[in-house]
Input
Amino acid sequence: MSPFFSNKRLIVLLVCMIILVALIGYSMSDRRALSWPEQFVTDTVGSVQSAFSRPAHFVAGFFDNISDMRNLYEENKILKSHLDEYASLQVELNDLRRRNDELEGAVDLQDDFELMDYTVRSALVIHRSPDRWNEQVGINKGAQDGIEENMAVMTSGGLIGKIDQVSQFSSSIQLLSDQDVTNRISAMVDGDDSVYGFIEGIDHETGYLQFTKIDIEAELEDGQTVSTSGLGGVFPKNLTIGEIVDYEYDEFGLTQTAYVEPSADFYHLDYVMVIERSAPTIDDDINDDSGDDES
Amino acid sequence: MIIRYSTFIALFILFILEGTVYQVFAPDFHGFPYLLIPRWMFMLLLIAGIYRGRGYGLFYGIIFGVFYDIIYSQVLGVYTFGMGLLAYLLCNSIPIVKKNLSLIILSVTLGVVLLEYYVYGMMTLLGKTELSHEIFLSKRFFPTMIMNFIILAILAFPLRRWFQYFDRKMQDFN
Output
């Protein structure tokens, strides 16, 4: 019997390993945009994936609808009781908005943009990585539809993640639960005074998001709402992330870490909204300045 | 024509199903505590490699490894190398394996075991995961293996019939 690995095969194997290491190094490098062969493959396969995932979402939605129908009556009663509250809130909101405009006019605030403003594009989720080593989801809109890297993505429940890689007709979302070290979002606690920190991945044992780097003197409470701060430079302000369920001092006792129960469902995703912030981002300003310097 | 490319088409459809339809109905999203990772495409790939020769296995392993890397995982090269190498190692198309269904099932199961461990090792090495070995075994490895093994055991016999039919067709063709 001939030896299993002859000399020639061994050399081929070693060359393959070198290629493997080179490829890994290439794909792990920071801020890499998709190369054109990758874009070609993702777009071609993406169109097939949309054809498969549309009926799948439809069937799943049908079963959801049936289970919804069973507790329709209960839900309706609760919603009706909220409705009265809603009317009074609306009046209060209008009043506050008018006063805010007046006050802004009085102190001459010259801000022509708002951190809160954004435009929305909706997209269909077409795939999710079957080996759960990363939490990534593909959608059927890409650069041709105006999607850009780092845009916020949310469902009706709240923020779910950001756009990671953009191809021409499809792109991938990195969910908040992804363990990657660069997956970090500037967030704040909605309270009497705002408390700032970062959302950094998920705690796998509890399934809660980790809200870290909170000031040690900040007073946290269970049930406070956490939302994006808009200070990271790419997301708009006030996109809901979730509610605080627990908090503790971090391992060094210098900051606090809170655990946030996400308000959006990361598992049953069908249609998502891609958020483009209207306020100019920091990158634009920097690029403008450097452009001026060069010219 | 269809017969000639049927293996490729079947592999591609399985590849798509794993990422789209299965993910909509995945049991761990509906409250099931264990992760069931579908490796159907890889299993069919190994069976096709066993019946049609090592070269086919290697070729399909690399092609679908590239697909898997580009579309489902963000680190290029991991699946390309793993699927190519495992397909090359495990696709023994000697008659004794071809005739014995249990040997086929055994080598395909071994392939899935090695692939799961290889990918876990790579992800740990690259710092993409901090999953401890016990949790990996209990929450991910055993449930995945059981699910894949059951599907393989059910489908192995019809698949063998199909490949034998396929062989005969190809002989008529030539």
